[in-house]
Specification:
Distance between the termini: 43 Å
Number of helices: 11
Strand order of the largest sheet: 6-7-8-3-9-10-12-11
Low-confidence stretches: 265-271
CATH topology of the largest domain: Rossmann fold
Structural class: alpha/beta
Strand content: 15-25%
CATH architecture of the largest domain: 3-Layer(aba) Sandwich
Radius of gyration: 21 Å
Helix content: 25-40%
CATH class of the largest domain: Alpha Beta
Number of domains: 2
């Protein structure tokens, strides 16, 4: 595994200016992604986790420049994606592909499965028609589909098979980075396991790098080497998988982990389940201080939770957290308090 990062994201911000409700109204801005930074090493799986509306998908779309970021930099293999002109960006995009969340709406219902998988090859002018046919046949076999299914249409496949078509399409241009945007959330649990194991096998065989987005902590634990936890557009915690799941520091991460189903039903495990009160604040007008403070069971006015934005700081190794209540020694508020 190379130490050189394939993807470097620094101070990425993506804001959306809303139109005024009337001529004399105040202009409003949605702070969808706010100062996000991380690095993804080659051949690894980097996870972004958080509840709906936290900015996960917007971060991914901004990295691929499918949404124009407000500021920051995104470097893919040394190239600043946000500064590239259209032609070099088009060439670079063949090395970065995307697996969408919904296998139903992400496939053209009027195209056959074979043509769907071949579409990226035609878009990027890769190979001849015969080579397209050979490549599609190879990809169908690789993702577990039969060659004769190339002539079938999306409605003739199950949800898991449709997602396999999406995976084959993403592999068509032989990319180095694949962004997986909630790739199994629309599938049954049994099919989820099959698709996740397929992604793991493909990564091992093709040395792929994944940027994996999910709201499911169980899926993140199964797939990812390193994880960032997003809340209302900001990173609240970042760590390798083992550190994050064995000792979460931020109360929000702790609450997410408490919601993961367990086979144990004893009284002690039930006591640890955290039920957050209220809804996340609006990204249009985020509150001062920590954005999680209004829902945090450990928020304290004397610790500036409501008035000062916590900085993302290193606690131990590469374990980072943005929380006023976490000590420099790595003692989290949930370690010493009960709720």
């Amino acid at each position: 595994m190379s130490e050189s990062p394939l993807l470097e994201v620094e101070n990425l911000c993506t804001y959306f200016r809303l139109s005024k409700s009337h001529p004399f109204g105040r202009s409003r801005t949605v702070f969808a992604v706010d100062d996000v930074s991380f690095r993804v090493s080659r051949g690894t799986t980097f996870g972004i986790v958080g509840e709906s509306g936290c900015g996960k998908s917007t971060t991914a779309m901004s990295i691929l420049r499918l949404i124009k970021p407000t500021s920051g930099s995104v470097r893919f293999d040394g190239n600043d994606v946000l500064k590239l002109d259209p032609k070099p960006l088009r060439r670079l995009r063949s090395r970065m592909q995307l697996i969408f969340q919904d296998p139903y709406s992400s496939l053209n219902p009027r195209a056959t499965a074979g043509n769907i998988v071949a579409a990226p090859l035609k878009t990027h002018n890769i190979g001849s028609r015969q080579q397209h046919h050979e490549r599609v046949s190879e990809l169908f076999s690789r993702v577990g589909l039969r060659p004769e299914q190339q002539t079938a249409f999306p409605h003739q496949f199950s949800g898991g098979q449709r997602q396999r078509i999406s995976i084959a399409r993403a592999l068509a241009t032989d990319p180095e980075l694949i962004v997986c945007d909630e790739p199994v959330s629309a599938l049954d649990v049994a099919i989820q396991a099959q698709v996740l194991n397929l992604l793991i096998r493909l990564q091992r065989e093709l040395n792929l790098t994944y940027l994996f987005i999910s709201h499911d902590m169980g899926v993140i634990q199964h797939m990812c080497d390193e994880v960032v936890v997003l809340y209302l557009g900001k990173i609240v915690e970042q760590a390798d998988r083992n550190s994050l799941f064995s000792h979460p520091l931020h109360p929000y991460t702790w609450s997410l982990l408490s919601a993961v189903p367990s086979i144990y039903s004893d009284a002690d495990s039930l006591k640890q389940r955290v039920k957050l009160k209220g809804d996340p604040p609006s990204p249009i007008d985020p509150p001062p201080g920590c954005r999680f403070a209004q829902r945090c069971p450990f928020a304290d006015t004397s610790k500036h939770c409501y008035s000062k934005m916590p900085l993302l700081r290193i606690i131990k190794g590469q374990h980072k957290v943005a929380c006023h209540r976490v000590s420099e020694e790595g003692v989290a508020p949930q370690d010493i308090h009960t709720i």
